[in-house]
Amino acid sequence: MPTDIRHSRSPAMTLKKVASADDLMTASDAGRILGVSVDTVRLLARGGSLPFTSTISGVRLFRRADVETLARTREHAKSSTRLKRAR
Question: What are 12-56's pLDDT values in tens digits?
């Protein structure tokens, strides 16, 4: 099913894209995967740490791959911090 989306890096550009329901998720879904609140997901998106697309109505959608990559990066950073403290 075609979905009109705007990319966060070029908000004026609207693209027609076929997106799988499994590929895109809401801020709430992203927060569950990341273990953070919806507000934190919004802050991560605003800060550029989590890329997003917006529907024409303004709903932010996040790609599962981007969310999972950020989750791994955050977990790696936590692990590194724990190792440094243990030394």
Answer: 444 445 456 679 999 999 999 999 999 999 999 999 999 999 999
Q: Is 29 exposed, middle or buried (0-12, 13-18, 19+ CB in 10 A)?
A: middle
Both structure tokens of 57 = 């109505």
- Decide: pTM greater than 0.90: no
Task: Give the CATH number, domain containing residue 48.
Answer: 1.10.1660.10
**Count helices and strands in the chain by DSSP H and E runs:** 3, 5
E strand or H helix that includes residue 33: helix 27-34
- Number of domains observed in the structure of the chain: 1
Rounded-to-integer distance, Cα 2 and Cα 76, Å:
36
Domain that holds residue 53: 2-86
